[in-house]
Fold:
Amino acid sequence: MDATRRRRQPVLVRAALLDAAVQEAMLHGLGNVTVLSVAARAGVSKGALFHHFANRQELLEAAYGECLTRFGDALDVLVAADPVPHGRFTRAYVRATFEAMHAEDANWARFSLSALVEPTFAALWRRWLDERLAQVPAERSAPRLRVARLAADGYWLQALGGGLVESGMAEIDALRECLVGFTYDDPMPGAANH
Structure:
């Protein structure tokens, strides 16, 4: 779509700016993202960027918010498709985490993780996860389910750093299914609040 037509569609301009911010962060590092580089990548003027976002921080926070929205949407689809109530959210969380890192455009997932080094983004992540877990209180405190979520987070960290690049998809699929299977087991003996 040409720039003139896109200017008349602010939703498309905003989406292009968010995507450009993520791409710039993945290519040059979060600290090196500038409003000029994002505007240039999105094919808009700096003024158009400032029409949508007051400053660089607001732009990056909006991009991070979009990452959380995308992950949440994927999670919701997986939760809705799971017929087994116990551990449903955690199984969806594990699957969505693995799928996000191997999506066609995994830059969004990588950006969401790399941004966590910034306290602002870490706070947004914690708030988002707390809100989601508040909807499934039995899963929040279930040790087995928490272990599975933490293991999925660990996988995400390894994938970001390239630690699992040498693994084939079959090995990665086996890891994912191992974690998913772990969430079907009965709660750990002696664990409270189940």
